[in-house]
Amino acid sequence: MPEVPHASEEEKVTPAVSFRDPGGYVSVSKDRVIRTVLPDGLGNLNACLSSPVARNFVARGALIATHTLHPGPAATRGEVQVEHPRIPFASYPHEWPPVMLHAAAQLTLELSSALLDEGRGLKDATPTNILFRGPSPVFVDVLSFENRAPLDPIWLAGAQFARTFLIPLLLHRRTGFPVHELFLFQRDGIAPAEAVRRLPRARRWFPPDLGLVTLPAYAARLENDRLYRPRQTRDAGEAQFILAHHFRALRKKLDRLAPRPAASAWSNYEAACPSYSPEQHAAKRQFVERTLREIKPSRVLDVGSNNGEFSMLAADAGASVVSIDRDPETVAALWRSANAGGFAILPLVVDFARPTPPAGWLGREHAGFLERAESFFDCAMLLAVIHHLMVTDQIPLAQIFDAIAALTTRWVVIEYVGPRDPLFHRLARGRDALYRWYSRPAFDECARRSFDIVNFLDIQSSDRAIYLLRRKS
Amino acid sequence: MALLIVAVVPLKAYADPGSGWMLWQIAGAAFLGVVYQCRKFLTRLRKRR
């Protein structure tokens, strides 16, 4: 593994984890993202830096900016170091609902198509080339750019684009396949031969399933060494014509696979299980809104965000918000709202009771959610979620507060839901005796171990209250 | 930066090109190649007239 750039003692640098690309690797510290470009990757870097299309994408925020650093000791080895601005919170495909995977696919394809006109392309096409800034996808792998061989009519990354974008989206469309779970265990997506078995038999022989999965799955049986010989057309115009047609066809397939809004048990949770009267809800909303405007947090974690009502309040108050929920459909709905409304919200499919574990080679390629979130936020919101953690997931209250204290550097807005609350009672399913000890004083005592109680609002005629807590230094 | 501008590096694609998808793409490219050459031929023919 290549050595990481020198870091001062205060600046902790993660080991280089982007080791697959022979062109270079990335090292991330708290505030800086440094990419070391090895001699094999200089052509790729040059393809990116000299591309007018790339400049255009950078200007609209769809491609990460790149600044070449002054030559350091690495220059003697023929290496170059560049710096990228840090995307505030890294997220991975195994935390995205299908609609975010689709947005990442659109960006990848748009970039590939645009680069074709200037004789360039992308040498790989994987969701891990994309991060999200708020709800907007950003292409971050500048070494993916390449100068195309003018006579080459094949997009080598096409198969990867199909495995990691098109086929998972197709399976989701046909069977409700949970795409985020796929990427936790299969970095490179799903091959046609594996996907064809999951497709309903009746659909396999009709487009787009036929061209995306069935025929490539059968064609795989004809594999031989000659298949991978470089191909050349008679003239550059022919290669360009073929690739342009190929990208248009992929675009059409991708458009047909756009995930449709769908309902889940949680999508309409508030309406199906109303925990508040309209007056109570208005009081809660007003308290949270006023609190957020007073404390002015810059980075908010909304745990169990559901429809994102309070995430949007936080975004309106000027915060950059990461909203997590275990239900992909509610996360997808929130992403659609945030994207349409331009809210600084990054919605992720993360179950706070079973947060995303570290993934990839040696567990170091993709940090776990808690590692990324630790001390990242200055405010955590847990509204109408504590009873789910305590009762459904059976996590002790003290441990919930310990976990929250590790995530926020300052504030917590949290809702107490007591055992006399109808929803608490419903979740307990006859096990109410387990929670006889639980009450407001017990909640306060647990909270005071790590936090000061700054303010609270009793919700009238209910066993609920909203607290503002400040972390003890 | 001068080094970057003059560097000519062979392509080093490392993503798995697949097998079935590759064959499917080659077949598509062959078909489109014929379409392109036919169009080119017809365009030339029209110009001669």
Name the strands of the widest sheet of chain A in spatial order: 11-10-9-12-13-15-14
> What's the helix count of chain A?
17
Number of strands of chain A: 15
Kindly report the average pLDDT value of chain A: 91
Which structural class do the helices and strands of chain A define?
alpha/beta
The poorly predicted ranges of chain A are: 1-13
Report the sheet-strand fraction of chain A: 15-25%
Tally of helical runs of chain B: 2
* Structural Rg of chain B: 19 Å
Tell me, what's the shape of chain B?
Answer: rod-shaped
Question: Assembly type of the shown chains?
Answer: heterodimer
Task: Look at the structure and give the mean pLDDT of chain B.
Answer: 75
Largest sheet of chain B: none
What report would you give on this structure?
The complex is a heterodimer of chains A (473) and B (49). Chain A is 38% helix and 17% strand. Chain A is an alpha/beta fold and 473 residues long. In chain A, strand 10, helix 12 and strand 11 form a beta-alpha-beta unit. In chain A, helix 3 packs antiparallel against helix 4, helix 3 runs antiparallel to helix 8 and helix 15 packs parallel to helix 17. The longest helix of chain A is centred in the middle third of the chain and has 21 residues. The N terminus of chain A is likely disordered. Chain B has 2 helices and no strands. Chain B is rod-shaped. In chain B, 24% of the residues are buried. The interface between A and B is large, with 58 and 31 residues.
